[in-house]
What we know:
It holds the Pfam family AstE_AspA_cat. This is Succinylglutamate desuccinylase/Aspartoacylase catalytic domain-containing protein. Its cofactor is Zn(2+). Keywords: Hydrolase, Metal-binding, Zinc. α2 (55-64) packs across α7 (202-217). The protein is an alpha/beta fold. The chain has two domains: 7-234, Zn peptidases (Aminopeptidase), CATH 3.40.630.10; 237-340, no CATH class. The termini are far apart. It has a nine-stranded mixed beta sheet with strand order 1-2-4-3-5-8-6-7-9, covered by helices on one side. Strands 11-12-13-16-15 form a five-stranded mixed beta sheet. It has a four-stranded antiparallel beta sheet with strand order 14-10-18-17, with no helix packed on it. 22% of the residues lie in helices and 26% in strands.
Amino acid sequence: MDAMRLAVLRDPPVDHDDVGTWVEALGEATWIVLSGDDDRRCRVITTLLHGNEPSGVLALHRWLAERPRPRTRLAVLVANVEAALIPPHFTHRSVPGGRDLNRCFRPPHEGAGGALARAIVEDLQAWAPECVIDLHNTSGNGPSFAVATLRDPWLERLAGQFCERLIVTDFRLGSLMELPLVVPGLADCPMLTLECGGALQPEARTVAGRVYRRLAEWPDLTDLVPNPDLDILVHPLRVELRPGVSIAYAREPQPGVDVTLWARIDEHNRGLTLPDSCLGWLGAGGLAGLQARDARGRDRLPELLCERQGRLHPRGPMRLFMATTNVEIARSDCLFYIVPL
């Protein structure tokens, strides 16, 4: 089977005022490649790996209308166009029945998602970029933050230009930012995920726009200065549903449901969550419906959460992030991440 080749548009005009119409005109995963003052160097931004996370492409559409001229060649990938165009636009994380594209970057590259991921990897290897920033929206409302796969001063300086929190994770899920760990040709390429905030938050588009402008304008990435306010959290734990466990989001426990999470649990994506916080309610099975495995596969849930009179509480102070109120994401991915303090 022939390898997939991605569409490439070089220095394209923006012919549509409406971003949905513009993405329809793209029609497929597409690289937008902008010529730079120094085309010997390349920087990469990826966006829309999840079709329901549009802030990156919204900011791109607005920014391209300004006819920018980057310092280096800048390649921007609009990735999961097929999922994004399923009506209504920008509401489907992935194509129904298909794999999560941001879980397809680890071999074997199976199915349509795997073929697309492999094509992205091949293009990145050919371009040998100075850095890659992968733009996402959080699955619930909350502040922007960056995610990296290792502690590295250069990545910390890069993250600190766009947000005030960096999560260093040891989970290996097959995401794009893990490529330097598994693709020898990309081992020296710094890759960072930037969660810009919730898809409906206007601030998220502002954060994404800042990435395009700064990567285009910076003469030399080695000159970045550290952000003294950057908060670094290491090795978060994913809280997940066990198979077959039912979930709902509400303001009171739902009859017959195994886990009812607080309807606005995404409010905990900001600040500190304390032991007196009620995160939701548990059915007859109690905590048995939940798990929080670390990167070694150990279930750490009993160290993190407890049940008090049918309510779900933290055992101690912690930071929550990526808490979602979307039932489908809760079932297919996770409920939230925790870093105990």
